[in-house]
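For the sake of transparency, this paper describes our internal protein records without simplification. Because each token names a local backbone shape, the row as a whole describes the fold. One such record is reproduced below, unchanged from the form in which we store it:
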Amino acid sequence: VGGNDIALRPTFSTIFNLLMLMGFQSPESIGRCSSPGGAWGLSHFVRMFRDDTRRYIMKVIERVRPAMVIVCMIYFPDEQKTGSWADGTLAALGYNGRPEKLQAAIRKVYELATCAISGTIEGTLVVPLPFFAVLDGKDTSLYVDRVEPSGRGGERMARTIWETIKANTRT
């Protein structure tokens, strides 16, 4: 489970809270938050990535419970401007000048939301996977248009999923 489609069709609430989070918080203040209410706008994304994702998982597994579900957190966009269709959106988020701010927010939502889903689904092992540890925004060759994995980037993601499955499977 995972996705970055909130950037493609954001609601008014998502846009508002993203502007609050990116406009009024420093990377350091985001990183220090110990609860969703610790930074303006953060609670919206924690609810989205924790509660909405959990509901989605429950819907998918309502008939048959798998042994494991891997819940993936989005990866960091490419830090380099490449003439992508996404350059304008990333610029509006301040990513071109201070990528560490959005990266801090993604890390914090992973910590407070994605990791909180772990162990909350009876009979199914829920494993959080931070794709930002795989695609950290530093290597442009891992991306297409800054926001999609290239063949190499996708291969790294697939290998990481496989390693996560192996590490969490009892033989």
Q: What stands out?
A: The mean pLDDT is 92. The chain is about 45% helix and 10% strand. The helical segments are 12-24, 27-32, 42-60, 87-92, 99-117, 151-167. Residues 5-167 form one domain.
